[in-house]
Amino acid sequence: MTALDAFRSRRNLDDSVMLDASDLAFYREGVLALYGGEDEARERFPQLYRALQEACENLPAPNRLGESTDFVDGALIDAVTWNREDNRLTVRAVTSLVEPAYFIDEHMEVRTGAGEIVGGFAQSTTDTCHSELVFETDFDPAEFSSTVLEIDYVSNWVTAGDRRLNTMLTSKDAHEEAYLSTRVKAVHVLSPVKRVQGKAAPINICYNRFPLGEEDVDYLYQGKVFDPYNGQQRLFAPVSAWVEFELDEQGRQDSFKRIDITTFKLKMDCQNGISRYEIRGRETNVEHHFVAQPDAAKTYASGFSFDLDPDWKANVPSRRWPARDRVDMLMEVKFEHESGDPGTIELTTMADRSQANVGKVDWMNLLWGCLRKDTRVLMADGSQRPVESVRVGDLVQRDAQGGVAAVSDVVRGFEENLVAFSTVDGHQLVCSRNHPLVTSEGTLPAEQVRGNCRLYGPGGEALVLNGIWDVPGDEVYNLCLDEAADGSGREGGTFFAENILVGDNNMQAFLAWGQSKEALADNPFLAECEEKNRRWNGGRS
Q: Which of 226, 263, 403, 440 has its CA nearest to residue 344?
């Protein structure tokens, strides 16, 4: 018996299943097995044990995760790769939550279809809404009686709000002819890619924004990509690739027959929740975008190509991406050779590199949140300059101590709805609803600032608000500051707009994380997570 055996009866391939205590004995047995049994869990992990008891006493409504139009708590098994040169198997999985958790405990087990254990791994991560598990091991298919890999991934977490234990199970089977493929030579990602070759990730996506340093934007969407009335927007980037097949010993290419469209899956992970798009009801729409190469010798060496531009998904609503800007992608497509043999390809941001049937995609960055045109920015020399006149390389004042930061980019665009602030001493600022402002209650998006908050001026003085109101849309601008220059690290930089301290685009990107860290500062599970990692690192999974 392994720690995950109790949950394996509920595995549903390629789906994320939220487990709950509606079957009390099953749930308790499964969870406690992960932590060494009831006696050890009660003694070694009392906080976790109490959270389990709370979950068992207060049952949630049944929840089975299918296709979603919004971002929800999710767990998924991402890239499964096998290097034929060194027999190295790598499996990656991720848990992404809408709200931050005191901890995320991840357990993975890999076995063959014959029940032979290939290996397992477990880890505990604290104060986070996003955790990635990477399991690596040697795997030689010749040494096992089955080439089917059965992968099970369980996540447990406790969020700050309810302090209940939540459990999700994700399972996947990987077949040699698919994931350990020797017939797919490579997946060449054609998009999304960096527009300027040689520039590092991320791939920058703008909606109704025009960066003045246009070489830093890879995809630009204008017009009705987002409907503010129903909160829906289209797929944010095109997806295309060329799948190249291996040639046989006589130099002949394999032939592509068709896409197994019932298995098409596309998942977006915005670091605080996962949105899933599957094939339901769109077979014809998607299938037409997968094209075999009849004149492959003129176009590609072998295989097939596809181009999923945003129009293919026009009838599929998606909520506006969360404020946090990093986006990871997993796309999985199964196909069939002329011989009838199946194959699978993946496009993913989580792979280290493109390998056989897995194509590596750089992570993507979304740009939101701006100041209305004519907003004056305090420069390093003490002068005031309209935000639309600031250029890359200019220096701005970033704090009350006189620190400076270099501007690495300026983004411009149009925003439908803005919010205005006025202070008792005459300052007035107009910005988008999700632009970060530094306040006495912490750094907040503009829409969360209330009248009792204090803003801050260039001398560190507190500014008292005497008005907050909505204003019509207008042309807007935002700054991206050089993080190396301003020394602020991952949370981005600050500068003064109309002599009010605000955040740049980078700070907005990590605003949710900053608030989460404050909310989870008093984490009662820290010591237990250290103990769990010590045990699991010692070989107990």
A: 263
Burial class of 193 by CB neighbour count within 10 A (0 to 12, 13 to 18, 19+): middle
Beta carbons within 10 angstroms of residue 59's beta carbon: 12
Alpha carbon distance 322, 150 (integer Å): 33
Angle at alpha carbon of residue 166, lines to 160 and 167, rounded to 5°: 150
Q: Which secondary-structure segment (H or E) carries 153?
A: strand 149-159
pLDDT on residue 317: 47
How would you classify the pairing of strands 203-207 and 364-367?
parallel
Residue 438: the pLDDT is 93
* CA gap 477, 412 in Å, rounded: 4
Burial of 248 (0-12, 13-18, 19+ CB in 10 A): exposed
Rounded (to 5) percent helix, strand, coil in the chain: 15, 45, 35
Structure tokens at 79: 């890239």
**β 117-138/149-159 pair status:** unpaired
Phi-psi region of 498 (alpha: psi -120 to 50; beta: other; left: phi over 0): left
Q: What is the pLDDT of residue 358?
A: 87
Where do we find the tokens 């046989």? 248
Residue 61, class by beta-carbon neighbours within 10 Å (0-12 exposed, 13-18 middle, 19+ buried)?
exposed
pTM for this one?
0.74
Among 232, 236, 371, 322, smallest CA distance to 516 is for 322
Residue segments in the chain with a per-residue pLDDT below the cut of 50 = 64-65, 231, 296, 315-317, 323, 484-491, 512-518, 539-541
Residue 233: half-sphere exposure toward Cβ, Cα within 13 Å: 20
pLDDT of residue 230: 52
For the chain, report the end-to-end CA distance as a whole number of angstroms. Answer: 12
What gap in Å lies between CA 55 and CA 26, rounded to an integer? Answer: 13
Residues near 237 by Cβ (< 8 Å), separated by ≥ 6?
191, 192, 203, 205, 219, 310, 364
Per-residue model confidence (pLDDT) at position 532 = 95
